Amino acid sequence: MLTDIIIVLAIMVLGIGIGLVIGNRPKIIKFVGLLTSFSIFLLLFLLGIGVGTNDQIVKNLDTIGIQALVLTIGALLGSLVCAYFTYSLFFKKK
After folding, report:
1. Residues 21, 43 within the same domain
2. Is 64 found in the same domain as 47?
3. What letter does residue 89 receive in the DSSP assignment?
4. Mean pLDDT of the chain
5. pTM passes above 0.90
6. Structural domain harbouring 18
């Protein structure tokens, strides 16, 4: 488990290093953005397959769905409140 964390951190540090090297090259940044979006969509698709093939999740979807909805609404409201206070404190012109 610790080795997994080290691998993830090493990959992140490598990505930061590559980002610093490529600097401000719009074509590369645009390509990386497209690649990132595609990767996120692929991961969400694979996650959906994993959920759909898990009988325990499918059987308890009504309970899990309500909990997920409550957590989502709470996270959204918390993010909005934090964003409002951050904007008010640091970005609002006086």
Report:
1. yes
2. no
3. I
4. 92
5. no
6. 1-54
